[in-house]
Amino acid sequence: MTEKLIIENICNLVIAEGLAENEQDFCERWLCKGEGYMRTLRFRGLQPSADALAVCANKLGFYADAFLASDRPYSVHTGRNLQALQRLCEDELRKAAQSKWQGHSIH
User: Fold this and answer.
1) What is the pLDDT of residue 25?
2) Over pLDDT 90: what percentage of the chain?
3) Cα separation of 100 and 87, whole Å?
4) Does this model's pTM top 0.90?
């Protein structure tokens, strides 16, 4: 798979914000998955599960709200970044759900 997973981009940005130490930490604390979850996705050419995306989006939203409640410029900036990541995650979740149900007709 040549296309980089959205979840990898989110992981890298969460690490850049200092909110996860590394990819393994992100997998465990932000996705509630095992430390090798993203390695497995890359190796098998899979997309992240709906569960992982939902957990990640929820956590991003929770921390975005917390940072935005601060009056410090750095915190507000981080909160906005987390909101943008939350939207990316939610968009991926919507796409995954839509592709699943569009493959089935209603009788």
Assistant:
1) 98
2) 76
3) 20
4) no
Question: What is the torsional sign of CA 107, 105, 98, 24?
Answer: positive
- Segments making up each domain of the chain, as ranges: 6-98
Euclidean distance between the first and the last CA atom of the chain, given in angstroms as a whole number: 35
Q: How far apart are CA 58 and CA 76, in angstroms?
A: 18
Backbone angles phi, psi at 71, to 5 degrees: -100, 5
- The residues near 46 (Cβ < 8 Å, ≥ 6 apart) are 40
Q: Are 11 and 20 in contact (CB under 8 A)?
A: yes
Structure tokens at 16: 């850049």
Helix (H) or strand (E) holding 49: none
State yes or no: pLDDT of 12 exceeds 60: yes
